[in-house]
Design a protein that fits this description.
Elements (H helix, E strand, L loop, with lengths): L11 E6 L3 H12 L4 E4 L7 H4 L3 E2 L10 H25 L10 E5 L2 H16 L5 E3 L1 H7 L9 E5 L3 E2 L2 H14 L3 E3 L3 E7 L2 E7 L4 E9 L19 E11 L7 E6 L2 E7 L5 E4 L13 H14 L7 E12 L6 E4 L5 E5 L5 H18 L27
Parallel strand pairs: 1-2, 1-11, 2-8, 4-13, 11-18
Antiparallel strand pairs: 3-7, 4-6, 5-6, 9-10, 10-11, 12-15, 12-16, 13-14, 14-15, 17-18
The structure holds glycine.
Glycine binds next to loops.
Length: 390
Amino acid sequence: MTVPARAASDGADVVVTGGGLVGLAVAWRTAQRGLRVSVVDEAPGTGASYAAAGMLAPVAEAAYGEEALLALARLSLERYPAFVAEVERAGGLPVGLRTAGTLLVGFDEDDLRALLALHDFHRELGLSAVRLTAGACRRREPALTPRVRGGVLVDGDYSVDPRALHAALLAAADGAGVELVRAPVAALAVEDGRAVGVRLGDGRLLRAGAVVLALGPWSGRLPGVPAGAVPVRPVKGQVLRLRGEQLLSGTVRGLVRGRGAYLVPQSDGRLVVGATSEELGFDGRVTAGAVHDLLHDAAEMVPGVSELELVETLARWRPGTPDNAPLLGASALPGLVLATGHHRNGVLLAPVTADLVAEVLATGSFPAAAAPFSPQRFQAVDEQPEVAAL
Ligand code: GLY
């Protein structure tokens, strides 16, 4: 692509395929840089963004061996309050940012041991988290069961209502001049070895100087995307929404006899209970077993859950990559830029993804923070171009 990504003719400078949180945030930030941006999505915000609980919890969700991802996630969290304020101002809608922190709790000796091992990891990395006694956990969240054995409080983790954020981002993007094309994308259009736009379901070609692939778990399957260039697979998550008395002030994550579950209050008063993590491809069934296990574990942690109304059961797919980290920036195909593969962290990583990808599109330069997430990292060394193709 030429830099900045300018269209050769009267098409858009940039077409973003996928109007979920990541795609919209990228489109909005890119339009703010003065580029003409279109987003193509038949039903924006109905994929993973619709199922997500909205935890902004890099510390609570920190995992061994994922320190680079943790650094990116913390950078994104740092940007979240300003991002939300700007989206709310531009979109004219509230987003439901909660700064109440995340409480991690354990139920038996083994759960507590696992939690304390995570806490040791937090301390090794200098992350802010404090150990709480069972009593202190219950003083913080009185709806917790008296059987809780102890916990760890991560004060600096937040949460947001992903559906409210999506609605506000749609309005903000519209206000910044982003064109939303509500149509199915049939294929990536490639001419002379470069991406030149997208072909819509009705055969129309939308030309653009650059194409951003933000199709979540479908990203690698779009016809025209080179085989193997986007190593993303669907990781099924089943999730519930409950309605009734407000039981919690912030996110509670529990280990219930070795099984993890989380409860996240939303700005509309609902409580999200999640989630399974299943390698079943695009299986969209909500299963009795999953609903049973999620409700069982949620009620073990917070007995009052049993009195709430079950208003929604849902299955969607996280876009998983081989190392659980996203694919950000130029792909091996000139003109094709990736903003996908966010796995469990799409909501959290939306602000930093948008900033980094908008920078690539507007200047052609690859910000240092994005370097570990280059899509080229999965290519064999002898296939890697000397200079990342923009
Ligand atoms: N980040 C929560 C999940 O993917 O279930």
